[in-house]
Amino acid sequence: MKFELQFWTQILGDHSTFIHDSLAPSKKVYIDNSSRFRKNLRLLSSIKGRGVRPGAYTAFLRGV
Fold first, then answer.
1. Under a CB-based contact definition with an 8 Å cutoff, are residues 34 and 16 in contact?
2. Under 8 Å CB-to-CB from 23, ≥6 apart: which residues?
3. Against a cut of 0.90, is the pTM above it?
4. pLDDT band at 18 (very low <50, low <70, confident <90, very high)
5. Residue 27 phi, psi (nearest 5)
6. I want to staple 20 with a disulfide (CB 3.0 to 4.6 A). Which of 7, 34, 44, 60 is the partner?
7. What is the mean pLDDT of residues 17-45?
8. Rounded to an integer, what distance in angstroms lies between the CA atom of residue 49 and that of residue 19?
9. What gap in Å lies between CA 5 and CA 11, rounded to an integer?
10. Rounded CA gap, 45 and 59, in Å?
11. How far is the C-alpha of 50 from the C-alpha of 12, rounded, in Å?
12. Closest C-alpha among 59, 51, 48 to residue 2
């Protein structure tokens, strides 16, 4: 499961960066949302492997 989590977190991070960087400057609401999503993905990546209880990642993603 650890490999899958790392893999999909990386894929989502790459896609969120692509989407964020592709948005027109006039789409401020979407830029703000994508910035928050990227920040949360980075936070999720930083807590992987720190002895977080099972199910914490799912709970984290529900709150995003």
1. yes
2. 30, 31, 34
3. no
4. very high
5. -95, 55
6. 34
7. 90
8. 27
9. 10
10. 14
11. 21
12. 48
